[in-house]
Specification:
globular; 142 residues; single chain; 10 strands; mainly beta; four-stranded antiparallel sheet
Length: 142
């Protein structure tokens, strides 16, 4: 089953998100501006598009593996809710020791569209026991 994703170009030169390969999970998002990121610097990169994500779905922004593994670029806070109609921007940080330049039209991240589950929040005075308990942060070994 496929859903229709409505996308509005906010700039006529913006590139619509697209799948590079037929079986890819993520739609490529493209920079709509030239951006230079110095080591340790973070920036919200404009894509030049707004997306109408269908009700009951969410858009999750993830790293492009080549950018993260080869250049140390990490995306930040990538949740796009179904009710949001503004420009999609990609928060990104340069974790490397080298300057990185995005040119307009370069891939900056990818967006996965997936079903969203809603939950009811219930406050309780205690939680059920589990085998793991409160162990975390490396407790399962190397």
């Amino acid at each position: 089953m496929s859903i229709t994703l409505k996308i509005q170009k906010l700039d006529k030169s913006a590139i619509l998100p697209n799948y590079a390969n037929h079986d890819d999970a993520g739609l490529d998002l493209y920079s709509n501006e030239n951006v230079t990121l110095k080591p340790g610097e973070r920036f919200s990169v404009a894509t030049g598009v707004a997306i109408e994500i269908p009700k009951g779905y969410v858009g999750l922004i993830w790293d492009k593996s080549g950018l993260s593994h080869n250049f140390g670029l990490k995306t930040l806070g990538g949740v796009v809710d179904a009710g949001f109609r503004g420009e999609v921007k990609v928060g990104i940080v340069n974790l490397s020791k080298k300057v990185y330049k995005f040119e307009k039209g370069h891939k900056v991240a990818q967006m996965v569209i997936q079903k969203k589950e809603s939950v009811k929040v219930k406050e309780v005075t205690s939680l059920a026991d589990s085998q793991r308990g409160k162990k975390g942060f490396g407790s399962s070994g190397k």
